């Protein structure tokens, strides 16, 4: 009997040391937390702040197809020049216009008679990202871009974000830490222990931008009509993981 008790104590000791050396895994996130602490209360917390976006991010471009590469490239260049010029006249700064990609592709015809693909022309695509700092002007900028580039225009997507989310994220982090502390205090109270100091903290934040599919007013471009753009709101979220010592 004594040997059995002694063996069980040795096994428990080895297990506890193993936890101290290897750390333990979060049951919720599966993340391995490296710590030499053998006992404690592990909790997670989340804080969320909802804000109104102050920036619209547009992805605009031109796409042209022609029988010759030189003609396709020339027409695409002219359409992009017109697009960039109108963006500037609408108050978009040079630093807020950035080339995203430029592609040239051969366009093939596939016929049963020939059996092999034949080049019928070339397609040139040029895309830019545009940061609109006055969201109220977004619809007007889209309409002006459509008018400037004509049939070559491509509006790929629109997203909304907060240009400087620092204060809001700080607020969300504080809420997340308070959430974690409340959970730890409840666990300590129910289990009959005293909550000690914090021995580990980690956090992650996210700025969830809302992406809106491109849409156009059926009368876009007509006098007194502007493409409606509704930014809604944006959620800024911070998640934390905290380990508290047990007194």
Automatic annotation (TrEMBL):
Gene3D superfamilies: Protein of unknown function (DUF541), domain 1, Protein of unknown function (DUF541), domain 2. It holds the Pfam family SIMPL. It comes from the Bacteria. One of its GO terms (biological process) is DNA damage response. This is Uncharacterized protein. It comes from Dehalogenimonas formicexedens. The lineage of its organism: Bacteria, Bacillati, Chloroflexota, Dehalococcoidia, Dehalococcoidales.
